[in-house]
Amino acid sequence: MPGKRYSRQRELIYEAVLGSKEHPTAEMVYQWLKPANPNLSLGTVYRNLNLLAEEGILVRMPFPVERYDGDIHPHSHFRCKGCGRVFDLMLEYAGEMDEAAAQASPGFQIEGHDLIFSGLCPDCQRNEIY
C-alpha cells in the first residue's frame, strides 16, 4: 500500500475503496468491513480515509455525503440525481480548460479542474425513480 504510515486497518480501508467502482462513502466502507473486523469503528474509517486522501492516494469527493475514489488520475464523474450513485466517465482530461480558465482569470494559478456531470443513470431512467 502506498503512503507513509502503515496499519492493517488502513490497508483494509484502502483496498476496499480501490476495489470498488462505487466511489464509496465512509459508511459504505464501514459496512463492508465490519463483519470481518468487529473491532473496527466508523470513526477509524473516517480518520483513515481522510489520512489516505491527505497522502494523495485517494481522492475525496465533496458531494453532499463525501465519497472517495481510488483512481487518483484526473477524470470526470457523473452523479445520478435519482439514486445518488457516482460513476466514472471515460472522457479525456481537457487540459485546454485549465489554460482557458487561467487566461480568463489573471492572477490565479490554475492547477486543474474537477468535472461532474449530473442527470439520471440508466437504472433510474428505466425504473422512473426520479
Descriptive report:
- This protein is α+β, with helices and mostly antiparallel strands.
- The chain folds into 2 domains: 62 residues, Arc Repressor Mutant, subunit A (Orthogonal Bundle); 52 residues, Dna Ligase, domain 1 (2-Layer Sandwich), CATH 3.30.1490.190.
- 37% of the residues lie in helices and 15% in strands.
- The strands form 2 sheets. The chain has a 3-stranded mixed β-sheet with strand order 4-3-5, with no helix packed on it.
- A hairpin with a 5-residue loop joins strand 1 and strand 2.
- The protein is flat and about 55 Å long.
Q: How would you summarize this macromolecular structure in one to three sentences?
A:
37% of the residues lie in helices and 15% in strands.
Keywords:
about 130 residues; Arc Repressor Mutant, subunit A; Dna Ligase, domain 1; 2 domains; three-stranded mixed β-sheet; 5 helices; about 35% helix; flat
What is the correct CATH architecture of the largest domain?
Orthogonal Bundle
Strand residues, percent: 5-15%
End-to-end separation = 39 Å
Which term fits the overall shape?
flat
Uncertain segments of ≥5 residues (pLDDT<50)? none
Helix and strand composition category: alpha+beta
Give the topology, please.
Blueprint: H1 8-18, H2 26-33, H3 42-54, E1 59-61, E2 67-69, E3 76-80, E4 86-89, H4 95-104, E5 116-119, H5 122-127
Parallel strand pairs: 3-5
Antiparallel strand pairs: 1-2, 3-4
Helix pairs in contact: 1-2, 1-3, 2-3
